[in-house]
Design goal:
354 residues; alpha+beta; four-stranded mixed beta sheet; three-stranded mixed beta sheet; elongated
Length: 354
């Protein structure tokens, strides 16, 4: 069962960052193992806080019920040895707990985590036929993409590169912070070279050295056979780009138009077929147009009841080497008007006990 991080922290889904921080501080002070609390509960609240305190991770969690690679807790957490006496302002100490635990929750220590662009989502409407058989769609979207001129480096093509003086080419800078637990040494990406360790002598004129720019881009989407309305197609690396890092993902939410004849249940296709009373009683052969625009002659035996279902094997949705069936719901319809001759024939049938 998916975890509800808001319930874990005891806050509303619309809670502000301050409310989330206050709730975490209160729970962390209560449940920290060094304070005699339950370690399992402490891990749950720290996991919840690590997601909800980060706007990107929180947005992913709200939209998809989880966070994706590059976001969310990874590995374990060892809270032993920490003194939480500063929580809640006791002793006059105030600090940002997200700064203290940022490296642990981020899944990478020492600031070595690779930067990742923002995930984006779009809605695409497809026909019922496309949802059954699959297909290809092309859409134009506007997003932050790598600069085509400098390939995302931010440097003018063929320009000379110099070692960054801020980080001496390491791409990271070290910082020491004084906390209630003593001095903590951390490192983060260099803001000058954005983690590359190099500075171009001349910046790319197309993107002004940013390496990325907002532009319109054509995206080709493969719609898989058998997809249902509301399903998401994940397209890795087609989200927004970021200089010196990897691009986010594109999520395509599929909406399926209804069909005039067919509907889908799992891998089965279902259609309705009304028959004249005489065809229902005597049996008949009907021609059916299938979803792939072919014709199929279907023999309908004399019906024993007013409504019956015919199953045509293998004529449903085809996925992964398997196929569903075509289910034809056959029903006898009664005539609105009856001629004198027809009425006489029916009376004869009634006399025979039919």
């Amino acid at each position: 069962m998916a975890k509800n991080y808001y319930e874990t922290l005891g806050v509303d889904k619309k809670a502000s960052q301050d409310d989330i921080k206050k709730a975490f501080r209160k729970l962390a002070q209560k449940h920290h193992p060094d304070k005699g609390g339950d370690e399992a509960v402490f891990k749950e609240i720290t996991e919840a806080y690590s997601t909800l305190s980060d706007e990107k991770k929180r947005r992913e969690y709200d939209n998809y019920g989880q966070t994706f690679p590059g976001g969310g807790p990874q590995g374990g957490f060892n809270g032993g040895g920490f003194d939480f006496s500063g929580f809640g302002g006791q002793g006059g100490v105030e600090f940002d707990i997200s700064d203290l635990f940022g490296d642990i929750f981020g899944g990478a220590r020492g600031g070595s985590r690779i930067k990742r662009g923002r995930d984006i989502s779009i809605d695409v409407e497809v026909s019922f036929k496309e949802s059954v058989l699959g297909g290809k769609r092309s859409v134009l979207i506007t997003k932050v993409s790598k600069c085509d001129v400098c390939a995302g480096s931010g440097a003018k093509p063929n320009t000379e590169m110099h070692t960054c003086k801020t980080c001496n080419g390491a791409g990271r800078i070290h910082e020491t912070r004084n906390t209630p637990f003593g001095a903590i040494s951390t490192q983060r990406g260099c803001p000058e070279c954005e983690g590359s360790g190099k500075i171009p002598k001349e910046k790319c004129e197309n993107c002004q050295g940013r390496g990325v720019l907002r532009k319109e881009e054509e995206i080709n989407i493969n719609v898989p056979a058998g997809i249902d309305g509301g399903e998401m197609i994940r397209m890795p690396g087609l989200g927004e780009a970021v200089k010196g890092g990897t691009s986010g993902d594109l999520y395509v939410k599929i909406h399926v138009k209804p069909h005039a004849t067919f509907r889908k249940e799992g891998l089965n296709l279902i259609m309705q077929m009304p028959l004249k009373l005489t065809d229902a009683l005597l049996g008949t052969t009907v021609t059916v147009n299938t979803i792939d625009d072919k014709t199929l002659d279907v023999k309908v035996p004399p019906m024993a009841s007013a409504e019956e279902t015919l199953r045509i094997r293998g004529k449903g949705v085809k996925v992964d080497g398997g196929a569903g069936d075509l289910l034809i719901h056959v029903s006898a319809t009664l005539p609105k008007k009856i001629s004198g001759k027809a009425k006489k024939a029916i009376e004869d049938l009634k006399a025979e006990g039919l």
